[in-house]
Amino acid sequence: MPEPSHPDRRSPISRRAVLKAGGVLALGTGPAAVAPAAPAWAAQRGTPLCDEPGDSAATQGVGSSDLGIPYYREHDGTWGYVFGDTWSGMQQYGDYLGSPLMLCQAGFDASGATPVSFTWAMPTGGRARQLFAYRTNADNGFGHEVSRIPNDCVEFGGRTYIQYTSVGTWEPPAGYDGSLMSGVAYSDDHGVTWRDYPYHWAGDIQGVNQSMYGMWSFAGIDPDGWLYIFSKRWNGSHRNTADRGAIQLFRIRPDDFRAGNFGAQQNWAHLESRWQWTTAAPPSPILTGNNVGEFSVKRIGDRYCMSYFDVTDYSICTRTASRPDTVWSAPKPQIVGDNRLPANHWGKPQVPNLYGGYIHPGSASPTSLTLMVSQWPGVLHQPPYRVLQFDGINP
Q1: What does pTM read for this prediction?
Q2: Is 105 contained in some domain?
Q3: Which of 120, 142, 208, 250 would suit a FRET pair with 177, their CA atoms being 20 to 30 Å apart?
């Protein structure tokens, strides 16, 4: 299927150009073309969580940012939201603050009657700042890094984990993903200080292009005791034509994960003419098809729910399954970049230059998800750089 003609998240104004310019970018202030405002009692339908005058993110020092990956802070029953490249001012004005950053919320309203509102920032409870101790646009001992982009966050057993991709370039040559490496950072004080596990998964610039371990989503610890993790190629530029939507699945015991014993994983693989859990072969792709960017998998109630940015279809799609290792439902477009075409986009909420689409683990039910959708500014007078909240999504 050919890719539609639509604005690219990274062009014509790229992150790399912005960072080289010192993190200050003058963009137009034209309104975003999102779904019409819902009644006050209804669920949120594209509510901006940052880049709005006087919003709760600004109170914590965050102006423009993206991703807003939600996770449950089980140690105190609160909620964290992990952001990528962040600026102190709206429309990407002001200081570049780095990536990742975290804002927190005391209580999440799963009904959608009230939007997410941030009540403090990490790592110290003061103004938001970069969580990890590394330098952007510098060599931190692994090769030149533009920034480290979070892919997912989870907390269990008193430790918080962020899986991230280190970006070598946002503008890789055709057929290359532009990543330097990927890794897992952890915090034993609930997000104040962070350390990296010593093992990193090599990326494009370190000689392993298209690594299927570039981008992870923590589906959670199942009642069977395993931590299920989905992973795929890094596709931050959304121009990674080799991606083709492949997603793989592996699982690991939480104690092994905590110890950094990543070699203890079991892989969901098609081996000897059948699907099985094994250590004798690498994981097999479980989903293929369209070009896929950011993705998210979470166990909500008694079902597993998946959301992802379908670059080819120019939409945020969802799927569900009863188990991580069973057949997934057909993709269902939920939020689209253009609701005029194709026909299954008609009437859908419209967000130009969309990407992301992270499932809130506190969603009301498997048939009423909350998604965090990002919006890239694109060109002058296009929508701002921000995160939008959508509730009541039925996958």
Answers
A1: 0.91
A2: yes
A3: 250
Say which DSSP state 262 is in.
G
* DSSP count for the chain of H helices, then E strands: 3, 26
Q: Does 35 have pLDDT greater than 90?
A: no
**Which class for 109: exposed (0-12), middle (13-18), buried (19 or more C-beta within 10 A)?**
middle
CA dist., res. 278 & res. 101, Å (int): 36
Pull the structure tokens for residue 246: 């492949």
Q: By the 8 A CB rule, do 201 and 183 touch? A: yes
Mean of pLDDT over the chain: 89
Strands (E), 285-368: 292-300, 303-310, 315-321, 332-336, 354-359
Indicate whether 279 belongs to any domain.
Answer: yes
Whether 165 and 184 have beta carbons less than 8 Å apart is answered as no
- Domains in the chain, number: 1
Q: Is residue 55 part of a domain?
A: yes
Q: Phi/psi at 208 (nearest 5 deg)?
A: -120, 85
Q: Which CATH number is 207's domain given? A: 2.115.10.20
| Alpha carbon 385 to chain centroid, angstroms | 15
Tokens for 238?
Answer: 């959304």
How many CA atoms does the CB half-sphere of 314 hold within 13 Å?
24
Model confidence pLDDT, tens digit, residues 189-215? 999 999 999 999 999 999 999 999 999
Residue 113 to residues 54, 109, 154, 314, 386, Cα–Cα distance (Å): 20, 7, 25, 28, 21
Do you know the residue count of the chain?
Answer: 395
Q: What is the largest CA-CA distance in the chain?
A: 59
6 occurs within a structural domain:
no
pLDDT in tens, 368-377: 999 999 999 8
Per-residue burial over 46-60, b = 16 or more CB atoms within 10 Å of its CB, e = otherwise: bbbbbbeeebbbbbb
Rg of the chain (C-alpha set):
19
